[in-house]
Design brief:
Keywords: FAD, Flavoprotein, Oxidoreductase, Signal. This protein is α+β, with helices and mostly antiparallel strands. Helices cover 31% and strands 19% of the residues. It has 18 helices and 23 strands. A six-stranded mixed beta sheet has the order 7-3-2-11-21-20. Strands 13, 14, 15, 16, 17 and 18 form a six-stranded antiparallel beta sheet that branches. Helix 6 (108-118) crosses helix 7. The chain is globular, with a radius of gyration of 25 Å.
Length: 568
């Protein structure tokens, strides 16, 4: 066999990652058997989608729509959905029929400006342009799949309401927007499978360990099967939709440690354990370029569970709660921030103004900075009582107080302080309702959904900041193609979409832009992958002197096959 070749420069630059990588390379000097095992792509090989969240489901459907003869969708979990299934505030879009019906004036320019401003203009403007221009089509795509997105929230950082979600029922079981979207797209995939069982194949509990290349093309993946076997799956194109690395806390290979610092490991996360950055790691090992990796979003409001306040995996307190009128109070009983400000701003204010709460108040916050999320009956009704009851009754995050006096007693503050806070807030509610000019309070808040009565019941949950989203990832272009750092051009046969990709959000993501990115760029990635599958890679030239049972062996001696495997 030929001498071992050095791995790509990207591996040598990754001391934390290199320990978990095994690089297997072969040249034309390999035996015939070895060549056969590393075969070139065949005409019937599929598009491979790695990751079964919203971006992956969107890519799968779009690849089929644009002519992919077969798609293999792979996910490491027992079911599809990923973090997308947990999304609770909605999906952004502008110039939609729902906005028009509700009298909301919006535009692509306004949406673009909000997104760029939230990202401190570190965003890739070209990617943002595609995001906002395709946003209305993304809503149409979901509605055609059976998702009712007939209500709109105002979320933090938006100049107008544009975060579409599933209307909350007045009674009965609520349908969270993320779960509803995932369920609808799964049904659409199942319908395709029923018509043609070979069109889409789904592999669950199957972890992708690395990418396979042939000549200049990415042509497959190495996987670990549910039974523990290592296998190679060949394909004409690979779509990475593996999500981010918000739960990547392994000491040796943690992307959080490498790019954001070890201090981030002390924070809780709202992500599932599967958010470990696999897609970034395996593509980076092949020389993929990454962007914005130090930009990690810490969401301001994750519920502190009274039953497990020290838990490092938290349940997200939907931004829609604040959009419908919830306010934030410190342990002193005062407001300290615009509840609908940018996520990074609200997080910073909580970390500065809100010390840890003691066990004597709703179980405390286990040493973490915590604020009080306060709702009244009106804000609960506007949010949707069935949805609120999930948080309050099923999860037991909220505690009900008969009035301000009862809350003040439990908190250990003068009731007059909370009463003054609410009275001041109510003044702006009235001014905003009566004024034709936008009013601002001392925290720059301009939207005041509901008034608070000091004699009415108040429902209070403790919230704390938690790692929620990683803005950085693989650098892509408008076609979702992944860039090779050293060739300064896109890989052939490799695309990415969703949180695994960077550049769209810049320094800070707007609420509702994650689901939108998954749909917009998931669809683009699926279309691009289908085109790649039709166009290449070229079939190998077979020498007549070779055995007839090895048609996949290439006659080109100068172009080795390469497998870069992430060891589980």
């Amino acid at each position: 066999a030929a001498p071992f070749q050095a791995p790509p420069l990207s591996l040598m630059r990754l001391p934390l990652l290199a320990a978990s990588l095994v690089v297997v390379m072969s040249s034309a000097a390999d035996t015939d058997g070895a060549r056969a095992r590393r075969k070139a792509p065949a005409p019937e090989e599929p598009v491979i989608v790695v990751g079964g969240g919203l971006a992956g489901l969107s890519a799968t459907l779009e690849a089929v729509k644009h002519g992919a003869t077969k798609v293999i969708l792979i996910d490491s979990e027992k079911s599809l959905g990923g973090n997308s299934a947990k999304a609770s505030s909605g999906i952004n879009a502008c110039n939609t029929p729902t906005q028009a019906k509700m009298g909301i004036e919006d535009s692509t320019d306004r949406f673009r400006a909000d997104t760029m401003s939230a990202g401190d203009r570190e965003n890739d403007e070209g990617l943002v342009e595609v995001l906002v221009e395709e946003s209305a089509a993304a809503i149409e795509f979901l509605e055609e799949a059976g998702v009712d997105l007939g209500d709109i929230n105002l979320c933090g950082g938006h100049s107008v309401p544009r975060t579409h979600w599933i209307p909350s029922p007045k009674e009965g079981k609520p349908l969270p927007v993320g779960f509803g979207i995932i369920s609808a797209l799964k049904r659409k995939i199942e319908a395709i499978q029923k018509e043609d069982p070979e069109k889409i194949k789904i592999l669950l509990e199957t972890r992708v360990l690395g990418l396979v290349s042939w000549n200049e093309f990415i042509t497959g993946v190495r996987v670990k099967t549910p039974e523990g076997r290592s296998e190679e799956i060949s394909g004409k194109a690979v779509v990475l939709t593996t999500g981010g690395f918000s739960a990547d806390k392994g000491e040796d290979t943690s992307l959080l440690v490498e790019f954001a610092g070890a201090e981030k490991l002390k924070l809780p996360t709202t992500n599932g354990a599967f958010a470990r950055g696999d897609g970034v790691k395996m593509a980076r090992a092949m020389g993929a370029k990454v962007i914005g990796m130090d930009r990690v979003q810490v969401h301001p409001t994750a519920f502190v569970d009274p039953a497990a306040p020290a838990a490092l995996t938290k349940f997200l307190a939907a931004e829609a709660l604040r959009g419908k009128g919830a306010i934030l109070l410190s342990s002193k009983g005062v407001r300290f921030v615009n509840e609908l400000g940018r996520r990074d701003h609200v997080t910073g204010r909580i970390q500065k103004e809100c010390p840890a709460l003691p066990e004597t108040f709703q179980g405390g916050s286990a040493g973490m900075p915590a604020a009080l999320l306060v709702m009244n009956e009106r804000s609960i009704d506007d949010f949707g009582r069935p949805a609120f009851n999930f948080y309050a009754i099923v999860k037991k995050f909220f505690k009900k107080y008969d009035n301000v006096d009862a809350l003040a007693t439990a908190l250990g503050v003068d009731a007059a302080v909370i009463k003054k806070t609410l009275a001041t807030y109510n003044e702006f509610v009235i001014k905003a309702a009566d004024s034709k000019v936008r009013v601002k309070d001392s925290f720059e808040k301009t939207v005041f959904p509901v008034t608070f009565n000091e004699a009415e019941p108040l429902h209070v949950a403790l919230i704390t900041p938690a790692i929620h989203y990683t803005m950085g990832g693989l650098q892509i272009n408008r076609k979702a193609e992944v860039f090779n750092e050293f060739m300064n051009k896109p890989f052939k046969g490799l695309v990415a979409a969703g949180e695994v990709a960077g550049g769209v959000h810049g320094a800070n993501r707007l609420a509702g832009n994650s689901l939108l990115e998954c749909v917009v760029y998931g669809r683009i990635a699926g279309k691009t992958a289908a085109e790649m599958a039709r166009e290449g890679p070229p079939l190998p030239v077979v020498s007549t002197s070779q055995h007839s049972h090895s048609p996949s062996t290439t006659s080109s001696p100068s172009t080795p096959s390469q497998v870069v495997t992430l060891v589980a």
